[in-house]
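Support request, please re-run this one:
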Amino acid sequence: MKNFSWQNILGNAPRIEHLKKILAEEKFPHAVIFSGVGGIGKRKIAEICAAVLLCENSNVEACGVCESCKLFEAGSHPDFYVVEPEKSKSAPNIKIGQIRALQSEVALQPNRSDFRVVIIDGAEFMNNAAANCLLKTLEEPTGQTIFILTTANRAGLLMTLRSRCGTVNFEKIPAEIIQSALELRGVESERAKTISLIADGSFGRALKLEESGGYEIRNDALNFLENLLAKKITVEEIFNRGKSFSDDSRENFSEFVIHIQKILRDVFLVNQADLYNADLKSRLENLKINEKTLYKIFDEGKKIQRRINSNANLRLLVESYFIKLKQIAEV
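Re-run finished. Output below.
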């Protein structure tokens, strides 16, 4: 079970040891939330727990040789069920139909094991109808299903759902661990160091920065901010950016806004604290922005971050954000 081994998990050693302990003692809760920033391995940890729970020979590390492990590794274990957000051009969403299908599944007797294991990945993307539907299942546990909900936004879950689940809070992964993992993948040392610092504790984000153009998004964000403060951003450019991001993805626009927010934080604390973008310090020091303008731009970033995962039209979101920033900078 090489793909479902604890050795594959970066960081969070105390939490991993806690999970091993409750697995060994057969005290794994019937419903638990794995909470922490995106890209730190919550889904993989949930899968490892599921593999161990369903293994016929072990309660700490899946053996990899029993029939259950072979089925799990092949992705065809009849007592393992995953619900995840539907991907589309609009916001990710877990709908009530998905939860009803889940309820029909868990109402049946387990096929091979004593119970089923269900992972709801990105649980914060359940709409209210789906969340309330799941709540009914959690309120009347049968003892034959274990639920693991993963989320990057625990506060986005219904309070009633949170109250019926245990919680394991995972921490961000230290930059030096991310750097070492990137170097093992062949990333040059200095680039790995820079990426690990701006990945903000997320190995998944570090991989995106390295492999999918995220590193360039940071540079685009800084270039944009420099031109914005120099009052060089035109309405035509704003509309072009709106089209570009809407043709791309919400994820990349979200990444862009995150970089703007972190750059502003670095500018404010440039000589007082560790910087997210330490390699860009000289450019950050040259950004001329007064405190009032900085706070206003930062506040707009917080507002747009709350709306990115809504069903609002992405192009209109992008354009309204940039227009607002242009208005703030030109006052």
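The longest strand covers residues 145-151. Strands lie at 31-35, 80-83, 116-121, 145-151, 166-169.
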